Amino acid sequence: MKILLMAALAMCMSTFVGAQTPPKKSPPSESRMELKSKAKQVAAGASAADHALTPEEMTIADQIHLGRMPCEMGSYVQIDADPKAPGFFHVQTKAGKYRMFPVVTATGAIRLEDQKIGAVWLQLANKSMLMNQRVGQRLADECMSPAQHAVAEALKLNPAPSFMDPPASATVAKTAR
User: Fold this and answer.
1) Does residue 15 lie within any of the structural domains?
2) Tens digit of pLDDT for each residue in 125-152?
3) Domain region containing 133
């Protein structure tokens, strides 16, 4: 009786174990692999075409300060040109990495964007900042390359006139009277 019970249990176990193993998948056919490869190539081509830079955007790209820039509160931003895509940049902070490209602005400010994430790099003559447009938050502020630091120091010694100040020609005319 014990032998009969053990035999029945062994048969049940083999059936149970066999039921839990997933069926083996056949390897994908070559035509299916070709279709996947071609689809990826088309998608990559479409993405590159969407982000083809204009000559004006390439001019902006030439003005981007590269390297590691210290920012306020001990943070930093590292900007490197993308060697595979002229005009594109890898922007990195402690908090994240972004792939950005230049955008033409009405004011002439130098601007890079990562539209997928909503990140924006604004570069002015005396400082730069990294912002997240989606949440309306500055990720890094008061970032300065050596060239921007020199401009900031010069502005401390010789501040730019305020738009509230009268024009210089009006001041000269008043003193001549």
Assistant:
1) no
2) 999 999 999 999 999 999 999 999 999 9
3) 55-157
